[in-house]
């Protein structure tokens, strides 16, 4: 069994009547798109890796170490949700500073200033989330991810609500910063253009299974039937909107 990166060893995750299985390895430092039909289990997969959902069987390993029993905060994992999870009563600097610990004093840290600068928010630290745009909130959430420094990053459609131009800017920023740090990324997306833009490989989640990663171009040029049907439906929906 490979020891470098993320290994899901005969893993089964169950939520109510739904069960998802996964037996795969993601090499360390890779960017992986997670794709598949709605309701197929993509968010369930990320919740299991992050520790928010306990497996019914199998193991989760990072660089050969079994992290299955570890609480979410003790895992080498940080997660960015679509709604960004910024606290509305805190400034952007205070939100980003939470990556360093629960004290709001971290907002004054030079590390927070550097993280905000890296995402182009160097002058907006004193503002609250409601006082900035959606794209700026996305950048603040990304700054917190960067500052957390954990080697495995999970993103669940974090930029789906953004316009095409801003989304591409955010994807480029994610690709540049995480690759430079050698961090591993699993990103749920419904858009094949996102996968082609930054993903080395794609994990397809369909029919209650998360399949092993496949090189992005190879998969999207010749998708399996379930993904092909879903992508065709998605493409028609986008063209009619």
UniProtKB/TrEMBL annotation:
Residues 213-241 are annotated as: Disordered. This is ATP-binding cassette domain-containing protein. Signal peptide: none annotated. Residues 1-232 form the ABC transporter domain. One of its GO terms (molecular function) is ATP hydrolysis activity. Keywords: ATP-binding, Cell inner membrane, Cell membrane, Membrane, Nucleotide-binding, Translocase, Transport. InterPro entries: AAA+_ATPase (IPR003593), ABC_SmlMolc_Importer (IPR050093), ABC_transporter-like_ATP-bd (IPR003439), ABC_transporter-like_CS (IPR017871), P-loop_NTPase (IPR027417). SMART domains: AAA. The keyword Cell membrane applies.
């Amino acid at each position: 069994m490979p020891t470098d990166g993320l290994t899901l060893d005969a893993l089964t995750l169950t939520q109510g009547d739904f069960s998802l299985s996964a037996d795969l390895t993601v090499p360390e430092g890779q960017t992986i798109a997670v794709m598949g039909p709605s309701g197929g289990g993509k968010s369930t997969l990320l919740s299991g890796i992050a520790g928010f959902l306990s497996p019914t069987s199998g193991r989760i390993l990072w660089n050969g170490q079994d992290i299955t029993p570890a609480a979410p905060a003790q895992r080498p994992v940080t997660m960015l949700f679509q709604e960004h999870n910024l606290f509305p009563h805190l400034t952007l600097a205070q939100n980003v500073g939470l990556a360093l610990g629960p004290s709001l004093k971290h907002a004054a840290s030079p590390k927070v200033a550097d993280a905000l600068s890296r995402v182009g928010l160097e002058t907006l630290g004193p503002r609250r989330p409601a006082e900035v745009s959606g794209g700026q909130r996305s950048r603040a959430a990304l700054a917190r991810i960067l500052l957390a420094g954990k080697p495995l990053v999970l993103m669940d459609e974090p930029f789906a609500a953004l316009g095409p131009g801003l989304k591409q800017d955010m994807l480029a920023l994610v690709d540049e910063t995480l690759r430079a740090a050698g961090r591993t990324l699993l990103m749920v997306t419904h858009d094949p253009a996102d996968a082609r833009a930054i993903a080395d490989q794609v994990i397809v989640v369909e029919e209650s299974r998360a399949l092993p990663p496949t090189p992005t171009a190879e998969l999207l040029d010749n998708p399996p039937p379930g993904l092909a049907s879903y992508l065709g439906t998605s493409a028609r929906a986008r063209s009619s909107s």
